[in-house]
Specification:
The chain is mostly helical. It has one domain. Helix content is about 70%, strand content about 0%. It contains 6 helices and no strands. Helix 2 packs antiparallel against helix 5, helix 2 runs parallel beside helix 6 and helix 4 packs antiparallel against helix 5. The chain is globular, with a radius of gyration of 15 Å. It comes from Mycolicibacterium arenosum. This is DUF222 domain-containing protein.
Amino acid sequence: MTERRELLDYASKVLDGDYGLGVRATRTAALLARRAFEDWLDEKCADWSTDVNSDRPPATTSKLVALGALHGEELGERAKVVWHGLSRAVHLHAYELAPSVAEVRLLVSRVEQLAG
């Protein structure tokens, strides 16, 4: 949990301009928040995901579906919205603008809310 908190703190500092990343700041902060989200999701799904008979761990999409089934549909839907928002924010497409600071701050705060 401490590492997750540190990742979210770094994301906030990146958005505040503490590291001088310029135009890369929002995507960097979104990537840090997504890593924190993934840690939280792995923790929530640890009971069943380690029992899967496979060489590969379950995909994030599978974990999101299982999260809703195991911990309630409302939590599952909130998590899906955050995951998709973060995933969209970290992917670079030449025809899209970078996500705004406000958009990424909202996503970071939603990860904080989910992760407690």
